[in-house]
Write a structure and sequence with these properties.
single chain; alpha+beta; six-stranded antiparallel beta sheet; two-stranded antiparallel sheet; 25% helix; binds 2-acetamido-2-deoxy-6-O-phosphono-alpha-D-glucopyranose
């Protein structure tokens, strides 16, 4: 951390100098999104300032959303994302959307296996109770920034082996001629709670977009029922409007 020996030289309150050094380290990427900040005591020793000064600087950065405090586990870095504009009229996959922007995607799997459907999955996918569905739950990450938590549910017919979905679900569906051609998407506002907040690396209560997508084959059959949580600070959903005929 570039905060060593702040006592020496310069004017202005020490906490502001410390705040500025930390802010620069966050914005320049020296500190990564989700990194834990060293304990207050260590920071104070290292910067050669009092713990009160450290607390003031940290309070400031928490207020500005560059740090987040989590009960019992410490203080973590929140690197602001550049917002992503996402068209609401094109049926594309996350992997494709990010590739178009030149970003690399990866996933942390939260759930990947075959299950009996829940009542709403049964209804939405039009399946009997004894059917099996593949559940694919992932934290979706673009260039090391966690952007969304997505939980897709697909009939076992289309994805018999959930482990075969290594990266793109739509690429796997395409291979079996089951890539959706139409979808209905519902977006609602929410406040992100834990554990989702800590997975996304945002403060508890920050704004999120909860999105449900039901996708169809040309036959009218439902392929996918996906519930996602997108970071409100990262996404603008954009739709083109035309006057009714
Ligand atoms: C998008 C879709 C999601 C779909 C995924 C497939 C939204 C809100 N969600 O993220 O429903 O399952 O793309 O992406 O747009 P993949 O092919 O990269 O797995």
């Amino acid at each position: 951390l570039p905060v060593e020996g702040l006592q020496s030289g310069g004017a202005g309150p020490l906490y502001l100098k410390l705040r500025q050094s930390l802010e620069e380290a966050i914005l320049s990427g020296k500190l990564n999104h989700g990194d834990a900040l060293p304990p207050e005591r260590d920071l104070a020793d290292y910067a050669n300032v009092s713990r009160v000064t450290v607390r003031k600087a940290v309070d400031d950065l928490v207020r500005d959303g560059l740090l987040v405090r989590r009960h019992g586990s410490g203080t973590f870095v929140v690197r602001p994302v550049s917002r992503v504009e996402q068209s609401l009229s094109r049926l594309t996959s996350f992997t494709e959307d990010m590739a178009r922007r030149g970003l690399n995607t990866r996933a942390e799997w939260l759930e990947r296996g075959l299950f009996h459907p829940s009542p709403d999955e049964m209804m939405t996918l039009g399946l009997p109770a004894d059917a099996l569905v593949a559940r694919l739950g992932r934290l979706r990450i673009a260039d090391d920034m966690p952007l969304a938590i997505e939980r897709a549910c697909v009939s076992v017919e289309f994805v018999p082996d959930p482990l075969s979905v290594a990266s793109s679900l739509y690429a796997v569906l395409e291979k079996v001629n089951a890539r959706p051609v139409r979808a209905v998407q519902r977006i609602s506002a929410c406040n992100i709670k834990d554990p989702d907040a800590s997975m996304l690396g945002v403060a508890v209560g920050s704004a999120g977009l909860s999105i449900e997508r039901v996708s169809y084959l040309s036959s009218g059959r439902v392929v996918e029922f996906t519930r996602s949580l997108y970071r409100g600070d990262a996404y603008d959903f954009v739709a083109e409007l035309t006057i009714p005929e």
